[in-house]
Amino acid sequence: MPAIGNGHIQIEYDDRRADVIIDRPEKRNALNEAAVADLTEAIKQVDDDEDVRAIALLGNGSVFCAGFQLDMMHEKDVDEHDEFQRSFRTLLNTIDQSTTPVVAGIKGAAIAGGFELTLPADLRVLGEESKYGIIEVNLGIFPHQGSTQRLPQIVGIGKAKEMVLTGEYVDPEEADRCNLVTEVVPESDVDDRTRELADDLTEKAPLGIQNALEAFQATFDVPLEDGLATEHRLAMQVYGSRDRKEGFEARLEGRKPEFEGR
Amino acid sequence: MTDDVVYEFDDKVSTIRLERPERYNAMTLEMWRALKEGIHRADDDGARAIVLTGEGDLFCSGDDIQSLANVENERDARVLADTLTDCFDAIEQSPVPVVGWANGSAYGGGFELLMAADITIVPEGSSFALPETKIGAFPLYAAKRLSLLVGRQRASELALAGREISAERAVEWGLFARAVPEAELEGTVAETVAALRQSSPEALATTKAWLGVPLRSDAERVGIRTGLGHLYAGENAREGAKAFLEDREPDFVD
């Protein structure tokens, strides 16, 4: 398992899927500066890799990510927090802007920063007994890495306020019902199901997936007509591809398409 | 990084100098990244001002056309768009004010760098143009900012018709702060830096942030990427760069 930088993150390659694995099980995969730097580097590396068509974001051990290291959070002064939080924001933006789809697999727990880490992912698989939520108001602060901006886009502002203000974990069935996650599965199935979903994505037309993800970058930012125009331009790029011809030909011939990403 | 961009920090002022005079400071992707890194570093160093300048006769002749010719697919186009956008964003969003000291004329991306700086001083007798569309490319910073800076018709003259304008006209149009005789250039830059030092860094940073807000539009980054991707999905962008490198007229298809 090749490790990145400080050794907190592992990358495993399996055919066209890359698993980016938080590897600090002794800390319940809690994040510190080095882990955040490693994770950012890992995501960039696999997103840039043309042979990787989907990314599974996982945690080694029984817990996906317990959040930020508590002692670190307690000890840092305001300037140090400013710097650390900026780097975490860069990590989340990197995941958000990745044109390789990211499937996050949450088992055991994804709490506070660990919860917010999953928001920019494209799909989320949640364990049916996992602790999933943003507890920051119990710690003297509020969740400020997307909970008030990305979360409302996913579940609506009402549900987002409920989660942020009460600081309570969301029941996994409720998370499924309110579209916060893609699927809820038994805890022991989370990693496999996440990899499976990512593998399904690797079978799709890479340019279609990439340009769809690009188009989604504009969804909440621009008026409808501008978004539709961007969507159209991105689509016309894909229509010029070899894969488009292959995709429709395969369908007409009743066979499976072979996509090459061009 | 690269030797073509030099960073100096002295007396709380960061100077970033383009040093590729043998190629008129034409910008490679590495140079764009180094420039961006320099802007970030100035903030880390606690600089009160950043001075952006160049070595040689010209401030900067624009993108190194080989970088454009090297774009083979959409992924490359995205990398190019992001590299340039990251650099311009760094200048616009740095809490440290950026003073452009034009040591000479500037074209294309070089002209855009001077536009992006907060206060740019240019020498009388220098000239400026945006020739990008002539080689099938587009001035991605000017395209999104110029209409607001100079009005749409003047922006079109620059960006669509490739009109070359004098230092004086550029100042008149609001693109730069001042055009001064060459002999007064260094002194005027020094005066500007001294004036900036009289303000508190936070006051400058907050004011600068608000000065920039009206310029920006929603979802710019994806729009610029899409625009560049669209150009490089066709043949003309590659033909334009190739023709330039081969010193001939491009043969654009309709």
What is the count of β-strands of chain A?
9
How much strand of chain A? 5-15%
Arrangement of strands in the largest sheet of chain A: 1-2-3-4-5-7-9
The average pLDDT score of chain B comes to: 95
Helix content of chain B: 40-55%
Q: What sequence of helices (H) and strands (E) makes up the elements of chain A?
A: EEEHEHHEEHEEHHHEHHHH
Question: How do the helices and strands follow one another from N- to C-terminus of chain B?
Answer: EEHEHHEEHEEHHEHEHHHH
Biggest sheet layout of chain A = 7 strands, mixed
The general outline of chain B is globular
Catalogue the unreliable spans of chain A. none
**SS summary, helix count of chain B:** 11
**Largest sheet composition of chain B:** 6 strands, mixed
Q: Which regions of chain B are unreliable across 5 or more consecutive residues at pLDDT < 50?
A: none
Rg over C-alpha atoms of chain B, rounded to the nearest angstrom: 17 Å
Structural overview:
The complex is a heterodimer of chains A (262) and B (254). Chain A has 262 residues and is of the alpha/beta class. Chain A has eleven helices and nine strands. Chain A has a seven-stranded mixed β-sheet, with helices on both faces. In chain A, strands 6-8 form a two-stranded parallel sheet. The longest helix of chain A has 20 residues, at 78-97. Chain A is globular, with a radius of gyration of 19 Å. Chain B has helices at residues 29-44, 65-69, 74-93, 109-116, 140-150, 152-159, 167-172, 185-197, 201-212, 220-233, 236-245; strands at 5-10, 13-18, 49-54, 98-101, 106-107, 119-123, 127-129, 165-166, 178-180. By secondary structure, chain B is an alpha/beta fold. Chain B has eleven helices and nine strands. Chain B is globular, with a radius of gyration of 17 Å. In chain B, the strands form two sheets. In chain B, strands 1-2-3-4-6-9 form a six-stranded mixed β-sheet, with helices on both faces. The chains are: A alpha/beta (262), B alpha/beta (254). The interface between A and B is medium-sized, with 19 and 15 residues.
